[in-house]
């Protein structure tokens, strides 16, 4: 399908509307290529047919026609560098091929034709790129190609064109996949102001910043650093932003013109090393160790591709030991609804599970998020918005007088992990909605509800729930009016209103529709504990 934006001297003429996703489209200007001798002339009946010809040819980056009776000239990659606008002496109409997710009816020519880079193949970030810049007399095109001659490629130099001839060699068992993307919602290393900034190096539990002059240097720094799972190159500040495994869940897909580029570390096995780049990101499972340093030995992750995100979900084996208040059998960075308070006790087995109704849950900051967006993120992580009835301030005692706790918001021993928030007052979406059929408030997920409504009613804030045609969703308010027993309260709100974060929950991994740890371990050729470094998190890492 063709998309074009025609820009005479002052007037913008838009052709066709569609597309919120990145696609090849055409920005059409009044201008003429400086030279025609490197082009391919073709006979066409109209300029629309001229741009059609360019769209059908992968190598074509630009189409030109002087007038309706002249031939159409197609310019391949690396064949033209200067376009002279008509006001500066040019003559005719030129169409630039761009790759963008801007709606066709709202293409921003000033943005798309000034300093933006485009790929010949949508996901290839290493070769056959071109950058368009605006100059005083028109526009210039610069061609970028990082590829090395085939005879010198080692592990494909991590380029897009997989599989590599040596991709299954032992020295290539850890690869880096390059994508146009930026760190998405819930990433732990992002600052909490919803801005495109990163935490300083004072907090190295989730990531680190390092100096780097190019994306390639940043990528190789991540490859060398066993903690790193993904690296983003901040071009403006010449900084390599590296985030650890289990500390990000979503990479937001972008286009080359946006300039956001990430390298993802993936371990290979005999099957994965024969896949294309797109296949590696399409619902595949990976062992975390030994490619990346982890808190847990029996840890693995799954990569999926959606229209908007590359999704990374990290899991623990059902029989992995627990760590602090992260429960065995739950996804990484989830708490378990039943947890022994004496979890360090030597006489307790690490593999002991409590009940068959253990719920995994997590709280995450997500400034400015709506309730539908929160439901989507939970769903992509294999979870649902949290139901409060199993998440109250409840204390339980078992037969051995061990103190078990069920999601206790008043427990201050783990303030950072308790909510995932760094402030005292927060609003968090929970799975509570008004039923349009009977007007009653109901929990979206009833799996873990333990108490009848009359025994433990919904802890609404005073004056809640407010009535209104749009008051159909509810968020939990922490520190802004609370129920004396629970330490928090609920507020009715329009579903499209924005709050500070989300709460998601699920059953344990043995009930999720995912591979078992043993299956993933078999795919990589080993079982049990594997490959833990001899030194821990205090070891030295390359600069």
UniProtKB/TrEMBL annotation:
Q: Which residues form the signal peptide?
A: 1-19
List, alphabetically, the Pfam families matched. Answer: PAN_3
Gene3D superfamilies from the UniProt entry: Mannose-Binding Protein A, subunit A
User: What does the record list as coiled-coil region(s)?
Assistant: none
> What are the record keywords, sorted?
Signal
| SMART domains assigned to the protein according to its UniProt record, in alphabetical order | CW (SM00605)
Give the species this sequence originates from.
Answer: Caenorhabditis nigoni
| C-type lectin domain ranges (all copies) | 356-480
Q: Would you tell me the protein name for this molecule?
A: C-type lectin domain-containing protein
> InterPro entries given for it?
C-type_lectin-like, C-type_lectin-like/link_sf, CTDL_fold, PAN-3_domain
